[in-house]
Amino acid sequence: MPELQGTSLQSLKKHKALIPLYVCVGAGCLGALFYSLRLATRNPDVQWNRTGEISNEEFRTKQYKFYSPRVDYSKLESPAPKY
Fold first, then answer.
1. So what's the pLDDT on residue 32?
2. pTM of the model
3. For the purposes of burial, counting CB atoms within 10 Å of the CB of 42, is it exposed (0-12), middle (13-18) or buried (19 or more)?
């Protein structure tokens, strides 16, 4: 059974146009992996330790806004429910 072209190092040397494709796909996979790990470790909605109660009080005063030029969110009350 013949080998697919561009899947081994020797056949990749013959087909140099495939190298940028592999680099772009590899960079995309690494970027997706990094972003998923970042969401799993930095997102306030994720709780890794299962001990204790889940509390919204820790995040009541924090603001997660991407862009808000004219509203001062430090003076507004949080819409999070109070338990």
1. 96
2. 0.56
3. exposed
